[in-house]
Write a structure and sequence with these properties.
Layout: E1 2-3, E2 12-15, E3 18-28, E4 36-43, E5 49-55, E6 59-62, E7 66-76, E8 79-84, E9 90-94, E10 110-116, E11 119-124, E12 128-136, E13 149-154, E14 159-163, E15 171-175, E16 181-184
Antiparallel strand pairs: 1-6, 2-3, 2-6, 3-4, 4-5, 7-8, 7-10, 8-9, 10-11, 12-13, 12-15, 13-14, 15-16
């Protein structure tokens, strides 16, 4: 058990039988009434984000999740196969469990598989990934006064807004949290 007073970003907890990670929290001490902790939690089983308020000092269960480094091997229909880098065991996850992550996965990429008591909850991507531009229109000279941008399609199928100087076959650094362009790699 852990007190809600000890919340920190990234902490995994168990509430009402579900596993959550703490995205944000705020200790509130109103002038009248008892103190409480307002939190923003992400459900690791279904990906939903919820806001929840706890009384100050309330205890919640601590969830010990395991992260294992695995390599993304291939996609076969609606299933994706990963291999453990140490034991060479393979696991398969459905596309429905990896909807957002598929925008950034490339073959042979190493990621972390998150599991809780043997149940696979999903994957953790690095903060940014390098992806190649496969399709974009050429930039028009003289169109840069306002920091204009254009659409680019990346090798995984993700569409992002990029500056006008980006061309096809450029390798870009893309944020995995929001899917936005960071810089050229």
């Amino acid at each position: 058990m852990i007190s809600v007073n000890d919340f920190r970003t990234g902490l995994t907890i168990e509430v009402d039988g579900d596993i959550f990670t703490v995205l944000d929290f705020q200790h509130v001490k109103p002038g009248k009434g008892a103190a409480f902790v307002r939190s923003k939690l992400k459900n690791l089983r279904n990906g939903n984000t919820v806001e929840r308020t706890f009384r100050a000092g309330e205890d919640v269960g601590r969830a010990h999740v395991e992260n294992r480094a695995m390599q993304y091997l291939y996609a076969s229909g609606q299933e994706h196969t990963f291999m453990d880098n140490e034991t060479y065991d393979q696991i398969t996850l459905p596309s429905s469990q990896l909807e957002w992550e598929l925008n950034f996965l490339k073959e042979n990429m190493t990621i972390n598989i998150v599991s809780y008591q043997g149940e696979i909850l999903g994957i953790n991507l690095p903060n940014s990934v390098e992806l190649k531009v496969v399709e974009t229109e050429p930039g028009i000279k003289g169109n840069t006064a306002t920091g204009a941008s254009k659409n680019a399609k990346l090798e995984t199928g993700l569409n992002v807004q990029v500056p006008l100087f980006i061309n096809e076959n450029d390798v870009l650094l893309i944020s995995t949290s929001d899917g936005k362009y960071i810089s050229r790699a």
